[in-house]
Amino acid sequence: MGLNPEPDHRSRDAAHEGSEVIELLEVLWEQGREAVPTGPVSPSQLRVLYTLDRDEGINLRMLAEALGSASPSVSRLCDRLQATGFVERAPSPVSRRELELRLTSHGKAYLVDLRMRREQVLMSTIDAMPPKARRALLEGLRSFRGAAAAGQEGGTARPLRSTG
């Protein structure tokens, strides 16, 4: 599957619509994040939680690489998340000099609740769509996710989670 050197107008239109949808999702995501009873976390902290959920037991250096951030900044984020009870540090069984980072049960519960709230918001909007449009949306999102994953091969970014 090659890349077109010049996208046609439909690609530009889809990218524009996609940008608008992302802006709407950001607002909805923020509302969902603030509604979780355990209190909101910053977007940067949330990225840490997502990464640890996906790559449990990674060390600080690997987390910093995955986030594209400096280790001292990531360490401070983890300090705050540890203080809230969302993250724990444990000695690595491989190296005495390294610590593994893991979500606590409280951190996992936060993500489950957050994802559930966000999916409920999406479902209420998607349920208002005609069935044919819902099917087209599902097909388009699956294709988009596949193309995005293929474009990220070899990099550190990966889809947060995959659903069938």
From TrEMBL:
GO MF term set: DNA-binding transcription factor activity
Domain HTH marR-type: 18-146
One biological process term in Gene Ontology: response to stress
Alphabetized Pfam families for the sequence: MarR_2 (PF12802)
Record's protein name: MarR family transcriptional regulator
